Amino acid sequence: MDASFFALVALVLFFVLLAYLKVPGMMAKALDERADKIRDELAEAKRLREEAQHLLAEYQRKRKEAEAEAAAIVAAAEREAAALTAEAKQKTEEFVARRNALSEQKIKQAETEAVNAVRAAAVDLAIAAAEKVLAKKTDDTVQQALFRASVGEVKSRLN
């Protein structure tokens, strides 16, 4: 009996001991559990991927809706700004027209007042000149007669 025989016997005893302790079953069970765990992790990863794709699609839809809403808001703001600009332009034109009319009216009034002032000054000057001329040409008796005639005319008009 040499050493190879004892090595063979030890090997056979080792395999018998392994079979007796059910080591192959435990190894198969551990491998099955690990395979199940990996399978579950793959299923979970697949579910998470599908959920992520669903969320991505939803966010893209919401983004498109938000962009459309923003475009509508911008368009409404532009329309409102255009309307306000047109209204402001119209009001400015009306204001300028009113101011021009008022200025023209004031100018006409000033012209009328200037003409009246010149006429009044001319009348006053003419009266003063007439007084001087009459004063030189008339004496006291003629002046008193004219004064009495004027007073009588005023009395007759007042009654």
UniProtKB/TrEMBL annotation:
InterPro entries, alphabetized: ATP_synth_b/b'su_bac/chlpt (IPR002146), ATP_synthase_B_chain (IPR050059)
Topology in the lipid bilayer: Single-pass membrane protein
Domain of life: Bacteria
Subcellular location: Cell inner membrane; Cell membrane
Keyword annotations of the record: ATP synthesis, Cell membrane, CF(0), Coiled coil, Hydrogen ion transport, Ion transport, Membrane, Transmembrane, Transmembrane helix, Transport
Main location: membrane
Subunit note: F-type ATPases have 2 components, F(1) - the catalytic core - and F(0) - the membrane proton channel. F(1) has five subunits: alpha(3), beta(3), gamma(1), delta(1), epsilon(1). F(0) has three main subunits: a(1), b(2) and c(10-14). The alpha and beta chains form an alternating ring which encloses part of the gamma chain. F(1) is attached to F(0) by a central stalk formed by the gamma and epsilon chains, while a peripheral stalk is formed by the delta and b chains.
NCBIfam families named in the record: PRK09173.1
PANTHER family, alphabetized: ATP SYNTHASE SUBUNIT B, ATP SYNTHASE SUBUNIT B', CHLOROPLASTIC
Family: Belongs to the ATPase B chain family.
HAMAP family cross-referenced by the UniProt entry: ATP_synth_b_bprime
Task performed by this protein: Component of the F(0) channel, it forms part of the peripheral stalk, linking F(1) to F(0). The b'-subunit is a diverged and duplicated form of b found in plants and photosynthetic bacteria. F(1)F(0) ATP synthase produces ATP from ADP in the presence of a proton or sodium gradient. F-type ATPases consist of two structural domains, F(1) containing the extramembraneous catalytic core and F(0) containing the membrane proton channel, linked together by a central stalk and a peripheral stalk. During catalysis, ATP synthesis in the catalytic domain of F(1) is coupled via a rotary mechanism of the central stalk subunits to proton translocation.
Name the UniProt record assigns to this protein: ATP synthase subunit b
Annotated gene: atpF
